[in-house]
Design goal:
- The protein has a 3-stranded mixed sheet with strand order 2-1-3.
- It contains 12 helices and 3 strands.
- The N terminus is likely disordered.
- It is an all-alpha fold.
Length: 316
Amino acid sequence: MATPNYTVTSHSLFILLGIPGLEDQHTWISLLFFISYLIALLGNSLLIFIIITEHSFHEPMYVFLCMLAVADLILSTTTVPKALAIFWFHAGTISLDGCVAQIFFIHATFITESGILLAMAFDRYVAICDPLHYTTVLSHSVIIRVGLAVVLRSFCVILPDVFLVKRLPFCHSNLLPHTYCEHMAVAKFACADIRVNVWYGLSVLLSTVVLDALFILVSYSLILYAVFHLPSRGARQKALGTCGSHLGVISMFYLPGIFTIITQRFGHHVPLHIHILLANVCMLAPPMLNPIIYGIKTRQIREHVLSTLPSPWKQG
């Protein structure tokens, strides 16, 4: 007898509330969101343009960087415009299908970025530990297969999320205290058993992002071991320099995510708006900072950008 009631009362529309508790600060918060999104949009678009149009950048490291920039654009565009609509126009209404689509693209892109960072760590490992076979190991065909594998893995592990959320009846509140739809944040509002959602979400996290992080840790342990056994100090500095930008990007990707997970699991007394702000940092910081980090730390990209500027800018 319960099933027909669920069918009748289950919500098909939700209202995203933004950041409850900080409503009076939404205007200033939206300014930070807008500036971050603009930097991410311009920075990543510039990186993609430079790498595609400049033949000297058609190397494995830069191809992976181009993939990362595309993923950053998708991740930020999936979340920030809707958040700005909430802050500026109070347009928080979103359909269940729209919510599920946002869940899919956010989580799939996040896992894709993790896979790309693992591929970039492997690229640095081969370049430093086995440079003579670098072009053989990371040929164009291998790069294409790696890219397809990363995207296919993300698609396959996140697609079940769509059905796990769609099957849930939402017969309680349809007010979601967030700036975007996130799997478990939405599932918690269901009037049904969500243990399958919880355990599947945890298994996906452990088998993708956490596993990737462990492989990256192993890769860089081997890289550091090889670097500190190089004969000359100059060679060591050059090898470490090539890894600096990648380590910065890895830190910006994993550290906010780890901190967010810890606060969600153990910070039960942490105010809700802190949880939501931390979740948004995970969406905003990597797309905004990745092109800045690579632009500053990678000499070839920095010199190419400077060479395209007018003379007065170069002199300044």
